[in-house]
């Protein structure tokens, strides 16, 4: 059985981040700095809670310390 984080694909992280930013996924680059796009701590917490509710093991502090891009977050989330 795959771990819960294995279902977090690059595309699913992109879709979730774009949703909390109120952007179209096509308008968000996976390599763009999320802070530059307006992703603040409240929105990060929203993502953490969304992913936890879906069964993923996600820590707010770890995301804040990870490279603030969708690609960076995806790599961090799927590393374990």
TrEMBL record:
One Pfam family here: PP-binding
Coiled-coil residues: none
Domain of life the protein comes from: Bacteria
InterPro entries per UniProt: ACP-like_sf (IPR036736), PP-bd_ACP (IPR009081)
Domain called Carrier: residue spans: 4-80
Protein name: Phosphopantetheine-binding protein
